[in-house]
Hints:
Helices cover 41% and strands 11% of the residues.
Amino acid sequence: MPTTLVAVGVAALLAAALLDERAFTPRTLAVVVAAGAAPDLDALLWVVDSGLHNAALHNVWIPLAATLTVRSDRGRAWLRDRYGPDAVHVAWVAIAAYAVAVAFDVFNVESAAVLWPVHDRFFAVVGKLAYSTTQGVEFTLLQPTLGGQLFPGASYGTVAGEYHVPSVFDPRGSDGGATRTAVAINAGWELLIVLAGAVVAGGRLRGSETRRAILVVAAATTFPDLDVFASLIVESTHRAAFHSLLVPGAAALVLWWDRGQAWLRDRYGPDAVAIAWTGLFGYVVAGVGLDAFTSLGINPLYPLVDQFVAVDGRVGYSTADGLYQSFFDVGGETAASNGDGGGTSGGTSVDVGQRGSTEEVHVASGVDPKPGAESAATERVFPVVFRGWHVTLLLAGALATWGRLRGADVSRDHSGER
């Protein structure tokens, strides 16, 4: 399941997106990040009952109670009087971070008891939303049946001993000497979220809360996937043509050169350069980076080096193996010809998830599902979400975008009043 660091990274992104210039401070960032990490503290309750992990603090009642409390405080203004004029705003963002952290575990096979203690059962909402030319719309996240369950196959047992979510504190049978594992990063995409949260919260885009800025960044993050059409011209160049790091590398050089020319600033305004760098960051992290952690990966140096690379792994600590990481593997010496046919010379092999060239790897898409010509009966699948965590990030992104746009409207209205 997503680790606590992922919840912390997304909380930092929400804080950067939803808190305005006055409210975004190191203290308020710490409050929101703490709220994002708080649900996982129920792992410490194993001393009371081993079933309370992903139940005691992963239920909907806690953010619901916090929501009612903040709403009721509107007339009393206790939060504002005690913690300052931005306290209510910060509280709402913290509640959002808490809810998103819970959602990460609900939309995951590990599950969470979201209705505990009213309903003593763990649930995992997993599935996909996609369109297929042969099957039509495929939606398997919710499958209600008459007189049946809302989430068939998603019920994993109860808190009272039938089901247990392992943690470093209670790995199940810890009294029998079981290995305790503290996982910091469980998959490549999680590392990306953590780094993005740190970078954005540390140096977020300031003074550009406009529709134009959001549109530019959204377009930049979407652009890499347009290479599905390039694959129709040059075979198997999806995840290669526009997923090559040479594209954002060239753009970065242009922006660096423009420092002395000020062409962007003169033509598009004082925020143009900051928006451009943020769009470039989105291109690399969201547009290219997330695809790098899929099973077939990306072709990061195409066309200079034609090699798909899929970078994925874990980082953590185990009582059996100590510190570990599996993102890359440095092997022993490999044999290679010395050129005269009379012997070999050794070299060190490094495995970073090489998958092969565009002649060997084809990343399927709805536009180009198979290499070569396809028949009219070929199934074309256009995915919307394929994993539970896709749903969580989609909802968090929609919330952050809505909040940013709403804040921009309020700021513009206040400026007009003055």
